[in-house]
Structures are given as C-alpha cells and as structure tokens.
C-alpha cells in the first residue's frame, strides 16, 4: 500500500510481551467504540464502508496494524478485514482466540449488525493501549496518525522488588463459585473523580476485590496492583507499567502516586531477553491481584461511549480500564477470566458506590 513500510526488529516493549513468561495469556486488548448509527437503510454497511475507506490511511501512518512477525522481524502484510457480527455481542469468544502473528494482522475489527458499535481486538505486543486509541480515532473520527517519536533508553539492574515478589507473592482475587468459560466483560458509567484520581480509583477497586474475596472465604493479605501506562501515541508500541505491592492494611494511595512518578521502566521491560521464558514456572508468583489502565481524557468526535478492556492475566486475571470522553461519558470497565458476569457486576457496582461516596 502506498507510503506504508515496515521492516524492523521488535523494540524492548514489544519483546517484553513476546518473551513474557506467561504465555497462557492470549495478550488481547479489547476496545468497544459506540457510535450513532448512520441514517441509512443499512447502518452496518455504512459503518463497514467507513472502515474500509480508512484502513489504508491507518496502515500508512501505523504500519503495525498490518504487521506480521517473520522470525525476529516485523514486516508489512495485508491489513485487517472488518466483519459484521452475527449477533449483538461486542466481545464474542471467536474474536478472543490467540493471534497467529505470523499469518494474520494484530488487529481484528467487528461491526455491530445494527451499526451501533465497532469492537477492536489487538495483540498487545504490536499495539498497546495508546495505539488502540490511535486506531479508533483514525478509523472512526477521521483523525491523523501521530508522527513517530524517538525510542526511550533502556538500562538498570534486577530490582529487589522482583525478588521480594517471588518470596512474598500477591494474593489472587477469589474465583467465582461457577467460573465462566470465557472472559467476562462489564462496564459502568464512571463518576467524575476530580483531584487524586490516580490513587482514589485503584484504592476503590482494591477495596472492592478485597471485600469480594473475603466474602468467599479467601481474605487477601498481600495485594499487587499493576498500573498500565502508554506514554505516547506514535506508531511504535511504548507500553509500560508500574507495580505496587502492599500488605492489606498498609496505605497504598501514596505508594501508587510515587510509583507513577518513577521515570524508569520495570526491569523486565528494559531487559526483555529470551531468558525471561525461564521464569515461566515462576510466573504465578509474579502475577498481579488486579490490573488497572487509566486511558484518561480522550477527544473522539462521533464516539458516544468507549469501553477499554486491558489484558486479563496472571493468577487473578482481573483487569480494570477507565476512560473519559471529552464532553461525554466516563466509563469504568472490568474484564475477568475466573469471575462470572454476575460477580463481576457486583464488584464493579461496589467500586462505583465507593467512589460516589467519596465524591
């Protein structure tokens, strides 16, 4: 396709996922963008036509949307082909299957048969949260793809925190009595939180999962929360995170604020060697209690609601996503592997209730 080119080695953020010791996880990030249906007799067809028109523009600025993994290199392949859903489920199991990055693009697009939403499924090694937002804005909001930005340096030694996590792993959230067969997805309107959102939101969700686990006879004693960060919106994956571990009862808000101010990436991102696979038997001890990715305030003309579901991984496999649309609705999402929809509804309702009491 004119102007699009791709032939490079994966960067350290991409390698950290490609070589991650947890390869049971499919590493699929999910976004659901709700739109006003086109005023035509075929709104789904109109939405499909818009995607087909914009996909070449996306690939020209973001070649990773059509990437293939050829041995140790990313190369350009054919772009994604959007499909119309057979029913109104925006997150069907068929779209959550493991990507084969050697033969398919790391982006799947599903269109509502009534033209009300488009679901985006991306492989996390190729497209992180910021690149997912770029994809949605480019395809649905007529936005240009941001210009490339320089790579960040990598350095550092194995920190004590990694060793401490092996010795004192975080407790997992209790599973449902009847776990689901596929990931559960729930979303709620999120109240405006104002100052302190970076600590108030994770505190509320940790309290909610602590209450949920205690009610099932599995009280949490140590919690580990991973805070997803996508620092830029250029074409390359710059995904990173900060991790906070605490005993239940210890203050966590200030620790979260401090972690978010740390400029260096975690060691396993800065040193994403093949040796990471040697840690596969230890991956459960390094896993999270919960994951939170706050996508912040986004300007997306034409989008009425946005849901963002991070990768649900680790022993708990409980991931929260938060996003605010400029001039529109804020949304809190929960994705869980071992918690059914009814229980997930209860957890996210408690989070919202806690936040509303504090507002």
Secondary structure blueprint with pairings:
Blueprint: E1 7-8, H1 12-18, E2 28-35, H2 43-61, E3 67-70, E4 73-76, E5 83-84, E6 107-111, E7 117-123, H3 129-140, H4 160-167, E8 184-189, H5 197-215, E9 222-230, E10 239-247, H6 253-260, H7 267-270, H8 283-286, E11 290-298, E12 303-309, E13 318-325, E14 330-336, H9 341-358
Parallel strand pairs: 5-6, 9-11, 11-13
Antiparallel strand pairs: 1-4, 2-7, 2-12, 3-4, 6-7, 8-14, 9-10, 13-14
Helix pairs in contact: 2-3, 5-6, 5-9
Question: Which descriptors apply to this entry?
Answer:
359 residues; alpha+beta; Chloramphenicol Acetyltransferase; 5-stranded mixed β-sheet; 28% helix; 24% strand; globular
Strand runs, count:
14
- Write the element-wise H/E pattern from the N-terminal end onward: EHEHEEEEEHHEHEEHHHEEEEH
Shape: globular
Give the second-level CATH assignment, the architecture of the largest domain. 2-Layer Sandwich
The CATH superfamily name of the largest domain is Nonribosomal peptide synthetase, condensation domain
Classify the oligomer.
single chain
